Amino acid sequence: MARRLALVAACLTMLAGSWAFGADSGAVRLEVNVDAERATVGDPIAVELRVELGEEARLEPERLGPELGPFSVVEESWSGPEQIEGARRWVWKGTVVAFRTGELELPAIRVRVLSAEGATLAAESEPQAVSIESVLDPTETEDSLADLKPPVGVPADYSTLIAAGGIIVMLLLVSLLVWWIHRRYGARLAAVAPVEDPFHRTPPDVWIYAELQKLLDRRLAEQGEVEEFFAELSRILKFYLSGRYRVELMERTTDELPGRLRQAGAPDAWIETIHELLVGCDMVKFARARPVVEDCREAIERSYRIVDATKPRASAGAA
Known about the structure:
Blueprint: H1 2-19, E1 28-34, E2 38-40, E3 45-53, E4 58-59, E5 67-68, E6 71-84, E7 87-97, E8 102-106, E9 110-114, E10 120-124, E11 128-133, H2 159-189, H3 204-217, H4 226-245, H5 257-264, H6 268-286, H7 293-310, H8 313-318
Parallel strand pairs: 2-11
Antiparallel strand pairs: 1-3, 3-7, 4-9, 5-6, 6-7, 8-11, 9-10
């Protein structure tokens, strides 16, 4: 039993020797350079690791971070291999920081190397001491630091809310006052008097159809009252167009009507027809033209067509 234990211990000793390959070994050489022996908390510290291998050995570059003992690795990279005299060199460059103070130690850095025979060997560097100092003034002590004061209560400030509420109330009062003035004095204060509805809420096309029918029922043409017929027809048509387009035409000459109707939005295709019909009525009233009964019927038909083309869309759709 004792012999077996001795044999196992000897094997473990040989195995440990093959992995703990020293930094000063002839096959592998490790060198660590730290750019600062002193730094403050959070300062970046540059670290460079050089690994020199024999011609037949190979390095397996691995990440050394994110932690190296009490240091945090914030940047790291490998470069190489670089051919040097009788060997090859790999270089690891990293930036480390520490967030606690005191005499800290950058631990030994271990790398894995494949020997020419294919065995995996381990080599490690020497640890490095780095002094990390506080960013506070060393002359200050805990006793010199002022005690934290309890939070100070701030009274609520409602002035902005009160001002906003006052503005809203004022706006409501002004709106109410404007509404009351408009309701009571709106008709008097209006810049332009509202246009009265000449048809008394009757659709203009309904009104003129009824008037044209009354004119036909009077049978003025059959009684020889042709001049009165055309005078009445002219009055009815101009009154209809005045109310339909809210434009004053009763005191306008026939030649002034096309321009007024065009400005009021009457359809251009019928303005000339309206003008011709009213010119014909003027010829009977002022030039003493003597149309026959058939001319009177044709004038009525043309009036109906004008109304059909110019009556409001709602009435046109209902028809």
